[in-house]
Amino acid sequence: MRVEEAIGRQIARLRTERRLSLTELGEALGRYLDRPWSRQAVHQAERGRRSFTAAELTALALVLDTSVPVLFRAEDDGIELPGRAVSPEEYRGILLNRERDMPLDGVEELIIALHDIGEVLSRPALARLVRIARVADQVARP
């Protein structure tokens, strides 16, 4: 996947979570940029069919109430750069820190922990256990 596609997927995901239409996101971006994005421009961005300036990435992060590194998340896909493909591990590593021996700061540790918690909570077996625990609580109560 190209890096623009990874960013586009995050824009689409966050826009949907925030319940913004394509037009609403484009208009909100206009508060930070010279002019708003059209509905088509937002659609193109979400499909990974455009490059982004630093100002646009900053505006997107502000409007979508997130951080710039979150916009670059690519789940478990590798990233294709013009010169070569980057493995998912290598790509994730650059989003957190470049030095493997360098300790993570508190924010990076929290991001990793939250990602791991999200992965665990999304497992179907855990969801079944949560439902079982709820039923057991209801039965145990008088």
Backbone shape: globular
Mean pLDDT: 82
Category from helices, strands and their pairing: mainly alpha
Report on the biggest sheet: 2 strands, antiparallel
**Which series of helices and strands comes N to C?**
HHHHHEEHHH
Radius of gyration: 19 Å
* Helix count, DSSP H or I runs of 4 or more residues: 8
**Weakly predicted, low-confidence segments:** none
Work out the strand percent: under 5%
Number of strands: 2
How are the strands of the largest sheet arranged?
A: 1-2
Percentage of helical residues? 55-70%
Give the terminus-to-terminus CA distance.
Answer: 55 Å
InterPro entries: Cro/C1-type_HTH, Lambda_DNA-bd_dom_sf
Domain HTH cro/C1-type: 11-71
Protein name: Helix-turn-helix domain-containing protein
Task: Write up what this structure looks like.
This protein starts with a helix and ends with a helix. It has a two-stranded antiparallel ribbon. The longest helix has 17 residues, at 124-140. A hairpin with a 4-residue loop joins β1 and β2 (85-86). By secondary structure, it is an all-alpha fold. It contains 8 helices and 2 strands.
In short:
The chain has 142 residues and is mainly alpha-helical. It has 8 helices and 2 strands. It comes from Nonomuraea marmarensis.
Topology diagram in text:
Elements: H1 3-17, H2 22-29, H3 39-46, H4 54-63, H5 68-71, E1 79-80, E2 85-86, H6 88-96, H7 106-121, H8 124-140
Antiparallel strand pairs: 1-2
Helix pairs in contact: 2-3
